[in-house]
Each structure stands twice: as structure tokens, then as C-alpha cells.
Design brief:
Organism: Dovyalis caffra
Family: Belongs to the SEC15 family.
Largest sheet: 2 strands, antiparallel
Number of helices: 27
InterPro entries: EXOC6/Sec15, EXOC6/Sec15_C, EXOC6/Sec15_C_dom1, EXOC6_Sec15_N, EXOC6PINT-1/Sec15/Tip20_C_dom2
Subcellular location: Cytoplasm, Cytosol
Structural class: mainly alpha
Pfam family, one: Sec15_C
Length: about 800
């Protein structure tokens, strides 16, 4: 019972809860439907809980609730609707009366306004026709203008005036295309205008392409012309320098009859004859009437047309790329053609390229910028330097290197005038300065060797004045300003002018290489290599000639004479180098060094002296025939000295025609000194066991003859030089004086010895003095003189010998 009560209490509680939940769900569902929200969550929840019937029940309940509301609203407004219908029925009669009144008024109005409407329709129709006619006329005039522009455009196209044709097309497009009444004409214009522009672009591009092909040939000719003008200007400068040097030489020689004249210079250094100003289409082309056809009209017209077409940047890029490709192709050096033959074309092509670019830079507006030109020039300089380095490294001929250097320097002069920096090119030339001079020295070494090997050691015969001028005056070898009579026999052989020509050519080639190379003062460099040529090459070749090819006195004498003339020639060489280098002669003289051929000169004089000594030695063998124990002194001199005197006099008469006085004096002095040594050597040698005073008196006569020979040369030499010749006999003379002296012991006095016997060696004096015999010392002579008083001279001599032995 208790549990039943409890269940009865619980069941209603669960039912109330369910009813409240259902009501809440109905309220939420009603609110969602009223707000127009999505019912999906309710459907999912119903199916998820397994109670779709509840949702369906709630929906039906909501529908029934709304139907009742609609019914209540209809009931509320029904009375109002009935009242409104009643009001409308009351107004129906009034409307019918108003309608009949309006119908009558309309009939009257139609009757009155009929004629007026007919007139108005006629007017409106006439106005429409007039408007259409005016519109047709304006469209016809517009079409006429359009056709005129089209005709004008065709006319300009046929004449090649593309800019004017483009202006006509632009005018058609901006002013008439949108306003054209004919759709056919409009379609035609829309099709043809792009075709016309494309046609013009193709035409000017073709002209520009032809210009690119043509400008390469023009650039090469233009570069050759510009470099040729630079060469002509350089030649004028050289001619002016030659005249200045001649004037300086005349001034140095104090010539007063100088002739001065004004010289007209052609002021055509630029390319004004190549560049003009006229052109078609009003373009300032920078070269329409040029000497070489240097015409920029196609380029400027193409640039202007592309500007008009709005393709300026594209054309700039296209131009720059094509020119860059052309420059790159210009850098190609053909391996089939020697660079010596193609270098002028190679450099002229590059020079012409940058002359054209300079003109375009100055006159072409913004077609190419300065930065782009500078970049192209840097590329060109780098490539040219590379090519020069490669080609110079292969060259083994100085003349070839000089030819290329001259042309490159002319290229530098030409392009520097247009503002291009050329220091890098000049640096390459300076870098190969040493190699060029080494090659030049090698060439000169071969030429000098050939010239010396062809020498016949004979005096040069000149039959005409031009030969004298060519071989003597041109090298300032003359000793007098008086022109000799012809035929003229020069004191030198043909080797001298041949070598002078080789050296002069070396100087000129060296100066030519150093000139215009960026170095203003280069005399020291030229002088350094000239010193090497003279002191190493020429001096060495002459020394080799002397040591290997000179076998006789006449040959040695000729070589010695040549050396004396070459000494004067060396003065000319340094003056010539200074003049060509633009250095005042006084500065060149200030920097002069010793004679660069001194080794060969000394060897030549030594060779001549040696050969003469050999000749003299042959005569001096006759000294063995001297009677060293003679009873009486010889009056006319011994046989050997007579032979020597004859030879010396013959030698002098011959040598003075060839050898300069100083050389002859040095040779004679050496020979006389040798004769003196031979005389002393004979007395000192083992072949002479003893001698007496009479023999010494005979030797004294011999020495006097030789001294007389030296004195007789005073007419040829100066008196001082003649005295120097006598000093060459000093040893023999002092020895004879000592042996003939009454007081030989004075030799031991330092003062007397220094004054009178300074060339004698005490050992020689001791040995020779021991051989001197008094006449009383003859065989069996002592028996008759026993107990006689000793000779004071003998006593003094014995004391001298004793003292000298003690010293030794």
C-alpha cells in the first residue's frame, strides 16, 4: 500500500516535468520559426533522442496556434472592409457624371486642336529632316577631312617621310577614329593604323640595319683618316723641330745669314671635312655631306620614329646591344693574317667606332649615355692592351714592334682629342720599352758585325762632294770646315761611316719609340741604351775585330785611326740624341761621360804598339853585333840604331797621314820606351858578359840619335809632347849617364838619385855596373900597370857596387 501511494505521488511529478519540457521546447521552436532561424538543430536533437514524434507534434501545435491568430485578425478587419465597400458604391454615381463631362470636353478639344496638330506634325517632320541633313553634312565634312588625312599619310609614306605619316596617323586615331560614322571605314582604320605603324617600324629598322652595316666600313675609313691627320700633324711638328735644330746649329756656329720665314699651318686637325650638318626629314644628322659619307641620318631618323612610336627605350637598348656586338667583332684578330699587316685596320676600326660614338653622344640627344660610351671604351682599352701584350710578346723584330708602337701612339693622340683616356695603352708601350731596345741592340749587333767583317782596312776614297757630305759631314767627322779637294782620301776606312749610320739609326729608332709614349723627358733612357750600344755592342765588336782580324801594322794603324775618328763620332751621337730628345746641347754636354769605346781604343793602340815593337825587336837583334869591348867609341851610331831610325822615320811619315797626333805620340812614346828597355835589357842580359866605356859611349851616341829623332817631332807635335817622347828614353839615358859619370857613387845620394836617376832600379844598376871594365883590365894589361894608382872613377864605381850589394 505504501509503495502504491508512493508511485501515485511520483507519476504526477514526472508528468508535470514532461509537460514543462514540452512547453519549453514549443516556446523555443516558436521563437526560432518566428525569427526565421534554422530548424536543423531541433531536427537533429529529435532524431538523436529518438523522439521525432514530439517535434512533429510541436510543429503541428505551432501551426494550429497561427491559424487561430489569422482567424482572429480576419475577424477584426472584416467590419472595416464592409464599410469601405459601401463608401465606394456611394462614389460610383459621381464618377459616372464626371466621366461624361470629361468626354464632352475632349470632343470639343479634338475639334479645335485638329488643324494645329496637323501643322505641328508637319513642323516636327521638317525639323527632323533638317537635323538629319545637317548631321549628314557634318559627317560628310568629317569623312572628307579623314580621307584627306589618309591621302596625306599615303603621300608621306610613298615619299618616305615616315614622321609626317605617323603624325597623320596619330591625328586620325585621336581626332576621327571614334567619331567616324561609317562602321566599315572605322573597321578599316582600326585594321590599317597598326599595319601602317608596323610598316614604318620595319622600314626604319631596315634602314637602321643597313646603316649598321655601312657604318663599319665608314668607321674604318674614318679611323684611318683621323690617324692619318694625326700622323701629318706629327710630321709637321717633326719638320718644325728639324728647323729649330738647324737654327740652333747655325746659332752655335755663329752664322748670321739665317733666313726666317712665316709658315702657314693648315688648321684641319679635326674631321670637319668629314662631318656635315644636312639631312632629310629635318634631322641634324651630324654628317650628311661628309668626305667619307659619314651620315647619321638613318640612325637619328630611326631613333626619332621610335620615339614617336613610344618605343624609345627599346630602340636605345637595341642600338647599344648592336653596337656592342660590332665592337666585339672588331676585337677579333685574324690568325691567318700577320698582325703586322692587319694592325692598322684593327686599330683604325676601333678609332673610327669611338669617333662615331663621340659624335652620336654630342649630337644624338639621349640615344646613348656617357656612361655607356665610357664602359665601351674601357672594354676596348682592355682588349687592345691584351692584344698588344700578346702580339708584343711574340715579336722578335724591333722594326715591327716600332711600327705597331707608332700606330698605337697615333691612335692615342687621335682619341685623346675626343676625350678618351689612353694612359693604359701608353703604359703597355712603356712596359715593352726594354724588350724593344734589346731587340734593337741585337739587330745593331748583327749589322755592326757584318760591317766590320766587310772592312778591308783601307782608307776610304771619296770622289764626289755628296759622298763627303754623306760619310763625313753628316756625322760631323770633319776636322776643318774647309771642304777638301776631290778625290779625297779619308783617314778612316769604310767601317766608320757604316757604324755611324747604324748608331744614328739606333738613336733615331730609340727616340722614335720613346717619343709620344706619355713620357716627356726620355733623354736619360735614350742615353742609357746608347751607352750600352757603344760600350757593349760596338766596343765589343771592335775588340773582337782587333783580337782576331788585325795581323799587320797597316791594319792596326787603320783601326787605331778609325778609333780616333769614332771618338769624334761619339760626341756627335750624344748631341744628336739630345737634339732628337728636345734637350739643350749644354745639358747634354754637362752629362757626358768618358769615351765609351775606350777598351777597343786602348786595345787598338796596344795592338799597334805591339806590332811596332815586334818590328823594332827585329832591328834590335842587331845589338848583338855591338863590340862591347871596343877600343874606340862608335861615331855614327851602331848598326841597330840606324835601322831603327830609318824605320821610325818611315813610320812617322806614313802614320801622320792617318793617325791623329795624340795617338801617334802615345804609340811613338810606347815604342821608344820599349827601345830603351831593350837597350837596358841587352846590357843586363847574359849575352853581354862585360863591356867598356867605349861601348857605353857608343850606346850614348845611339840614345842621342833617338833623342834627336824625338826632338825633330816638335814640328809634328808640340814642344811639350816632344819632350815627353824623350822621357820614354829616360831609363837608357840615365843608365848611360850613370855609367859615364865620374862619380857613380852619387847614385846612392837620395836627392841626386831622385833628380837624375829616378827611373833606374838599383838591382839592374848593380848587375850592369859589375860588367863595366876599365881599359886597364884588358888581358895582360895588369903587368904593365902593377903598382900604379887606382882610377878614382873605378874606385867610386866599386864603392857603388859594394854598397848596392850590401843593400840587396
Amino acid at each position: 500500500m505504501l509503495s502504491a501511494k508512493v508511485r501515485r505521488k511520483v507519476a504526477p511529478a514526472n508528468g508535470d516535468a514532461d509537460n514543462s519540457a514540452d512547453k519549453q521546447d514549443q516556446l523555443l521552436l516558436s521563437s526560432t520559426i518566428f525569427n526565421g532561424e534554422d530548424l536543423g538543430p531541433f531536427v537533429r536533437k529529435a532524431f538523436a533522442s529518438g523522439k521525432p514524434e514530439t517535434l512533429l507534434h510541436n510543429l503541428r501545435h505551432f501551426a494550429r496556434s497561427k491559424e487561430s491568430e489569422i482567424e482572429e485578425v480576419c475577424k477584426a478587419h472584416y467590419q472595416d472592409f464592409i464599410l469601405a465597400v459601401d463608401d465606394l458604391r456611394s462614389l460610383l454615381s459621381d464618377v459616372d457624371s464626371l466621366k461624361s463631362s470629361l468626354s464632352d470636353s475632349n470632343s470639343k478639344l479634338q475639334f479645335v486642336a485638329g488643324p494645329l496638330l496637323t501643322s505641328l506634325d508637319s513642323y516636327l517632320e521638317a525639323q527632323t529632316v533638317s537635323h538629319n541633313v545637317n548631321l549628314a553634312l557634318s559627317l560628310i565634312f568629317s569623312c572628307i577631312k579623314l580621307l584627306e588625312l589618309c591621302s596625306r599619310s599615303n603621300f608621306h609614306l610613298s615619299r618616305g617621310n615616315f614622321y609626317m605619316a605617323l603624325k597623320c596617323v596619330d591625328s586620325i586615331e585621336t581626332d576621327f577614329l571614334d567619331k567616324t560614322p561609317s562602321s566599315t571605314l572605322k573597321r578599316m582604320l582600326e585594321k590599317k593604323i597598326p599595319e601602317i605603324r608596323s610598316h614604318i617600324e620595319r622600314k626604319v629598322s631596315k634602314e637602321f640595319g643597313d646603316w649598321l652595316v655601312e657604318i663599319r666600313v665608314v668607321s674604318r675609313n674614318l679611323g684611318q683618316l683621323a690617324i692619318g691627320q694625326a700622323s701629318a700633324a706629327r710630321q709637321r711638328e717633326e719638320d718644325l723641330r728639324i728647323k729649330q735644330r738647324q737654327a740652333e746649329e747655325q746659332s752655335r756656329l755663329s752664322l748670321r745669314d739665317c733666313v726666317y720665314a712665316l709658315q702657314d699651318e693648315d688648321d684641319d686637325d679635326g674631321l670637319g671635312g668629314v662631318i656635315g650638318d644636312d639631312g632629310k626629314d629635318g634631322y641634324s644628322n651630324g654628317g650628311g655631306n661628309g668626305l667619307l659619307g659619314f651620315d647619321l641620318t638613318p640612325l637619328y631618323r630611326a631613333y626619332h620614329i621610335h620615339q614617336t612610336l613610344g618605343l624609345e627605350d627599346r630602340f636605345k637598348q637595341y642600338y647599344f646591344e648592336n653596337r656592342k656586338l660590332q665592337l666585339t667583332s672588331d676585337f677579333q684578330v685574324s690568325s691567318m693574317t700577320p698582325f703586322l699587316e692587319s694592325h692598322q685596320t684593327f686599330f683604325a676600326q676601333i678609332a673610327g667606332f669611338f669617333i662615331v660614338e663621340d659624335q652620336i653622344l654630342r649630337t644624338g640627344g639621349d640615344l646613348i649615355s656617357r656612361m655607356e660610351v665610357e664602359n665601351l671604351w674601357e672594354t676596348a682599352v682592355s682588349k687592345m692592351c691584351s692584344v698588344l701584350e700578346d702580339q708584343f710578346s711574340r715579336m722578335q723584330t724591333a722594326s715591327h714592334l716600332l711600327l705597331i708602337k707608332d700606330y698605337v701612339s697615333l691612335l692615342g693622340v687621335t682619341l685623346r682629342r675626343y676625350g678618351y683616356p689612353v694612359d693604359a695603352l701608353l703604359d703597355v708601350l712603356s712596359k715593352h720599352r726594354d724588350k724593344y731596345h734589346e731587340l734593337l741592340l741585337s739587330d745593331c749587333r748583327k749589322q755592326i758585325a757584318e760591317a766590320l767583317s766587310a772592312d778591308k782596312f783601307e782608307q776610304m776614297l771619296m770622289k764626289k762632294e755628296y759622298e763627303y757630305s754623306m760619310n763625313v759631314l753628316s756625322f760631323q767627322l770633319q776636322t776643318s770646315d774647309i771642304v777638301p779637294a776631290f778625290p779625297y782620301v779619308a783617314p778612316f776606312s769604310s767601317t766608320v761611316p757604316d757604324c755611324c749610320r747604324i748608331v744614328r739609326s739606333f738613336i733615331e729608332d730609340s727616340v722614335s719609340f720613346m717619343s709620344y709614349g706619355g713620357q716627356l723627358e726620355f733623354f736619360d733612357v735614350v742615353k742609357k741604351y746608347l751607352d750600352r750600344l757603344l760600350s757593349e755592342v760596338l766596343d765589343g765588336a771592335l775588340l773582337k775585330l782587333i783580337n782576331t782580324s788585325v795581323h799587320g801594322v797597316s791594319q792596326a794603324m787603320q783601326v787605331a785611326a778609325n778609333m780616333a775618328v769614332l771618338e769624334r763620332a761619339c760626341d756627335f751621337f750624344f748631341r744628336h740624341a739630345a737634339q732628337l730628345s728636345g734637350i739643350p746641347l749644354r745639358m747634354a754636354e754637362r752629362g757626358r761621360r768618358h769615351f765609351p769605346l775606350n777598351i777597343a781604343r786602348d786595345a787598338a793602340e796596344e795592338m799597334l804598339s805591339g806590332l811596332l815593337k815586334q818590328k823594332v825587336d827585329g832591328f834590335m837583334t842587331l845589338i848583338e853585333n855591338v863590340n862591347w869591348m871596343a877600343d874606340e867609341p862608335t861615331q855614327g851610331g851602331n848598326e841597330y840604331v840606324n835601322e831603327v831610325m830609318i824605320y821610325l822615320e818611315t813610320l812617322v811619315s806614313t802614320a801622320q797621314q792617318i793617325l791623329p797626333t795624340p795617338v801617334l805620340k802615345r804609340v811613338l812614346q810606347d815604342v821608344l820606351s820599349h827601345i830603351s828597355e831593350m837597350v837596358v835589357g841587352a846590357l843586363l842580359g847574359d849575352s853581354v858578359k862585360r863591356f867598356n866605356v867605349n861601348a857605353i859611349m857608343g850606346i850614348d851616341v845611339d840614345i842621342r840619335l833617338l833623342e834627336s829623332f824625338a826632338d825633330n817631332q816638335a814640328s809634328l807635335f808640340s814642344e811639350g809632347d816632344a819632350n815627353q817622347l824623350k822621357t820614354a828614353l829616360a831609363e837608357a839615358r840615365q843608365l848611360v849617364n850613370l855609367l859615364l859619370s865620374n862619380h857613380p857613387e852619387n847614385f846612392l845620394n837620395p836627392v841626386i838619385r831622385e833628380r837624375s836617376y829616378n827611373t833606374l832600379d838599383y838591382r839592374k844598376v848593380m848587375i850592369i855596373s859589375e860588367k863595366l871594365r876599365d881599359p886597364s883590365d884588358r888581358l895582360f894589361g895588369t903587368f904593365g900597370s902593377r903598382g900604379a894608382r887606382q882610377n878614382p872613377k873605378k874606385k867610386s864605381l866599386d864603392a857603388l857596387i859594394k854598397r848596392l850589394k850590401d843593400v840587396s
